[in-house]
Amino acid sequence: MNRRRVLQVGAALGSVGFAGCVDGVAEHFTGGIQGVIPMEIHSEAEEPRNLHFEAHDRETDQQIYEEGITVGAGESVYPSHLRGTDQFLRVAEIDTDEGTELDAQQAAISEDTRLVLIRVYDEEIEIELQTAGDDQETVEDQDASQRETIDDPEDATEFDDDDLEGTNDTADGSNEETDVDEGDADALES
User: Fold this and answer.
1) C-alpha distances in angstroms, 83 versus 58, 59, 114?
2) Residue numbers of the domain that contains 121
């Protein structure tokens, strides 16, 4: 085999390898690779609960997830993630003494689901699905509830004229002290 043939074979193999790499990168950006959906379980029950999880693909009805978990009273558990595909999730509470289902809930999960939140109460199981749009609303609602409002003006903090003195940064980076006299303080309040 001569040098020319060896170089041609090497270039052809390199091109084929590079094409496979490009296909993998293109698949990543077009959504061909599936993500994961985290699950959180929060128990507000007074006794430990045994839960059984099953997920089935919507198109093929093939079982793609199965897990059994015991959740203690007042405990939070983070089981393994679900696939980021369209599926049905079924959560059942199992009575281990009798081997029967006490309660069961089912939810339809889509690719847009970002979190599956399961709350276990004494009498029921509740499944909450959070999608990408819900995340922003939840954060806004949480921030609004954490803000403190002052209903009575007497509860507000009062400032003395001494509290209004401070330093200002100038354009050249140095600090200069400033005093605010009563006339300026009245102008700032209005």
Assistant:
1) 12, 14, 11
2) 36-146
